[in-house]
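Data availability (excerpt). The following record was deposited with the supplementary files.
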Amino acid sequence: MTRLGRSYAQAFLDSAPANYDVEGFLAQAQGLLHALAHRELRAFFLSPGVPQAAKQKALEEIAGRVGLDEYGLRFFRVLLENRRMGFVGEILAALREAFDRRRGVVEARVAVAAGIGEEESERIARALSRRVGKKVRVHLETDPTILGGFVARVGSEVFDASTARAIDRFAENVKEGAKA
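Predicted structure:
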């Protein structure tokens, strides 16, 4: 993360009201980020030729549509006033990282052969949490080459519980047995 993203994330967390729902904000802010992904809207917010009042009105309209609360809207107003709307994605990513760090949560990228349900995803998260000693937030990806099971990456650590790896281990054991 860049220093800009970290500084805005830190400011957000330090000035948030007690017991503020940061998870809820991040979910709502994703809607605003999605809107800013549209080229025309992004150009509108980044253009120095568009009056600030028009940008403010558009921001409030979008914020209302995605359900952004008053504190979240104030934060986005600050970004708009400081001409930082082009960095929203980076700032939100830094906020997610800083918030997770405060709560002792780590992110796991988990590849599965095919889509899985919420219950199975939670089981994987619990198993990984036991292994790494921290709460784990799972991001699922699909990779049909692993055949079954999953491959998880938590930081630099890889947990390979895939069918493909099990087949490889079996083949290695058979070769070792044949040599003996």
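Summary of structural features: The first strand starts at residue 105 and ends at 112.
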